[in-house]
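User: My collaborator sent over this chain with a note saying "see what the structure looks like." That's all I know about it. Can you take a look?
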Amino acid sequence: MTKYVIAVVIGGAIGAWMGSRGTCETGACPLTSNPYAGALYGAVLGFFLASTFGTGTPSASTEGKSMSSTTNVAITEIKNREAFKLDVLNAPVPVLVDLWAPWCGPCRSQMPIVEQLAGQTGEKARVVKVNVDEAGDVATDLDVNSIPTLIVFKNGKETARFVGVQSADTLSRALGLQ
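Assistant: Without extra context I'll predict from the sequence alone. Here is the result:
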């Protein structure tokens, strides 16, 4: 809600400024005909821009952990190479690495499946997510060309790689849980 209010206020202010400086004498150009019309059109445009582009990321993060709203399971978010080495390569259990991006439709379809699996692994395995927009160096190191890419690591070595949306059963088998 706050993002809409901010967008409307900023859009209205910019529209009013444009309207006060405008040179439209016929009234046919709404943003520059007068400050009131400019403010109104600017506020409407601000609202639509906030609706279209203000979606954010699908999962919130807190200190490197994201909590799934459906399963209440912590999934570690990897932000850099050092965290990847610590949380994946040096992990004592198998690790599923989900490489994704917020703008990727198939990644968003994969998300509930990964969250479900994370809820079922317990202490037998770990699930981590790598946002390729934020941790491009990790994606480059792993030679990821398409997303979603899901990679299973055991004892610091890659043992399985999947590109595209995968079922929970496929991922569970790759982790050695079935």
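A starting point for your reply to your collaborator: The chain has seven helices and six strands.
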